[in-house]
């Protein structure tokens, strides 16, 4: 089968991904074999491409957000049949979905209805799972939520899920007119500019406290104003905490901090069925967030997708359709 692969970590300027023939996946007993019809492209994959090389003589196949059709079922799978239309994530420790077929544990996959296009479905799994696990981990006393990076894939879905599942006031951050408009379309009650005085903007809008901040980008640099807007004993959920971070401003308010990485349950083999259940909820509760559709499993389309996600100005989700059937 065809797949997009690379050997050595590299920057976008030296894009070294190639389309080659590789062996078919070898499904495990709990796996589905899926014919991939569309893949979502994520900033995390760009980061891996920049930093992770294959072992000597090996190759890397990235991509862990897909929609497609079940082509085979393992003996320890349940609830799926050949021909089912599905979406899912896959496993960061295994070959990904930048390929014509992917083998994936059936517990991190859900069926999708016929009326949901493959490209639309492929925009939901990673951002939706990340948002769900982050914002619904601790909802006690949460009435006002601030989503940092509300126009991105994760922020877009967090805003939708909060508005459709809770009664919370949802504030999103965005700095450009087009991203502010997108946040409003996702359901945000208020949009503030994270490059300006966030606390002042909130006060001017009559918001005197934030119970939960969900930060999807720039968390380390924003710790100061995040601590400023959070109430004492509030909550910070973050998806991008890396390197040294000064948590002193949070400690002064006894803020609870939790991080989120969408593959944690998969890598640990812990409660994988929860992933599938959340994905099923996303199908019924979340609106697709595709803003850029590219076509064909090619080096050029993947390079363009990574240019978009690395620009820092992406809104919504970039999806690549592998077939003519959206």
TrEMBL record:
Q: Which SUPFAM superfamilies match?
A: GroES-like, NAD(P)-binding Rossmann-fold domains
Q: What Gene3D superfamilies does the entry give?
A: Medium-chain alcohol dehydrogenases, catalytic domain, NAD(P)-binding Rossmann-like Domain
Enoyl reductase (ER) domain location is 10-320
Is Membrane there in the keyword field? Answer: no
Keyword annotations for this protein?
NADP
Query: Does this entry carry the keyword Ribonucleoprotein?
Result: no
Q: Which InterPro entries match?
A: ADH-like_C, ADH-like_N, ER, GroES-like_sf, NAD(P)-bd_dom_sf, Zinc-ADH_QOR/CCCR
**Family annotation (SMART domains):** PKS_ER (SM00829)
Name of the protein: Zinc-binding alcohol dehydrogenase family protein
């Amino acid at each position: 089968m065809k797949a997009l692969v690379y050997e050595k970590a590299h920057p976008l300027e030296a894009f070294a991904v190639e389309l080659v023939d590789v062996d078919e996946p070898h499904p495990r007993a709990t796996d589905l074999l899926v014919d991939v019809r569309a893949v979502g492209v994520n900033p995390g994959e760009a980061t891996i491409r920049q930093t992770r090389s294959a072992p000597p003589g090996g190759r890397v196949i990235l991509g862990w957000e897909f929609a497609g059709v079940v082509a085979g079922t393992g003996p320890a799978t349940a609830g799926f049949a050949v021909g089912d239309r599905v979406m899912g994530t896959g496993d960061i420790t295994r070959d990904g979905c930048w390929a014509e077929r992917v083998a994936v544990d059936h517990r991190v996959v859900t069926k999708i209805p016929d009326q949901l296009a493959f490209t639309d479905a492929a925009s939901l799994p990673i951002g939706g799972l990340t948002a769900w696990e982050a914002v619904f981990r601790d909802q006690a006393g949460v009435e006002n939520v601030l989503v940092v990076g509300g126009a991105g894939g994760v922020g877009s879905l967090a805003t939708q899920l909060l508005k459709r599942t809770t009664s919370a006031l949802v504030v999103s951050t965005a700095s450009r007119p087009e991203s502010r408009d997108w946040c409003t379309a996702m359901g945000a009650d208020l949009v503030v500019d994270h490059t300006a005085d966030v606390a002042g903007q909130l006060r001017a809008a009559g918001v005197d406290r934030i119970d939960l901040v969900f930060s999807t980008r720039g968390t380390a640099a924003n710790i100061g104003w995040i601590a400023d807007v959070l109430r004492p004993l509030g909550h910070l959920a973050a998806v991008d905490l890396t390197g040294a971070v000064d948590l002193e401003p949070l400690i002064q308010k006894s803020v609870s901090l939790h991080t989120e990485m969408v593959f944690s349950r998969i890598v640990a083999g812990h409660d994988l069925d929860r992933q599938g259940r959340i994905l099923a909820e996303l199908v019924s509760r979340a609106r697709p967030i595709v803003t850029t559709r590219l076509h064909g499993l090619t080096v050029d389309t993947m390079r363009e997708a990574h240019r978009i996600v690395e620009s820092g100005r992406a809104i919504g989700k970039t999806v690549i359709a592998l077939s003519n059937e959206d």
